[in-house]
Amino acid sequence: MYSAKIPCLSRISSNEKTCSLLLRRFAFKSDLKIKWVRPEKISCIRPEKSGDIEGLPRINKTQLAPKFSNSKELETADETVKKLFTLEFAPRKDTNEFIYNSIMDKVKQHNFDVSSAEVKIAKWTGKIRAMQEVMERFPRNLKSKVTLKELIERRKKHLKWLRERDYKRFEWLLENLNVVYKPNPAVICKPTRKDSLRKLTAKYCEDIKQQRLDNYQAFLKSEQPAFLEEKMRMLAFIKEEQKECDVEVTVTDAEIEDIRKQLDELKKKEDHSDQM
Q1: Model confidence at 64, in pLDDT bands (50, 70, 90)?
Q2: pTM of the prediction?
Q3: Which of 79, 115, 206, 209 is 20 to 30 A removed from 47 (C-alpha atoms)?
Q4: Per-residue pLDDT at 12
């Protein structure tokens, strides 16, 4: 007796589900034109994260290396011999040292300044940019990667200290070194699909709302000349009716003239926009 009723109940329940789906008043995610792509993870040693806007400066490699610049023997030497002692044939360590000194010369307080915070930060900036170029060629060099990360954090720590002590000096240093200060975030929030879709959906709804408001505003602007003409006609009609009925006239000629001026200005703007 009960087995005969089970198919009927199941059929009714399936029909109710179908009707509820057909009569639904909500949207599925597939109905919204929203697509979320997981952002690419940027390494902490990349210039985008460290704040280095530019790389190492280009130097003139035809000049003598600093340790041979005061050599008296090279003054009378052959050009081929001089070329061997230029930066072009110098080891990378000497070339980088020359670049570090040129960067430090920009922020030195005096000629013998080697230990101020600005000089230290400038030297670390040169090392960071040199190691970033190395990491682009050898991304699997873990030792250099760890060293580079430590240098970036050390520079960030000293920049924070300088920012708290002397903000003007801090801004001047960033401008000379062409560095953007990017402190560590107080709270690290990893991007998730659920939260990102919520934000994208909220933005999508706000864009639709703003678009409809803009369309409605454009519609009202297009109807404004006809509205002013109708208003001017109605005010003139009310004024004539009040005169005929011998009652106090509440509509003045100045009000009608103001509306006429507004109408003329609107027509001039429309003609100017059509010509443009």
Answers
A1: confident
A2: 0.65
A3: 115
A4: 44
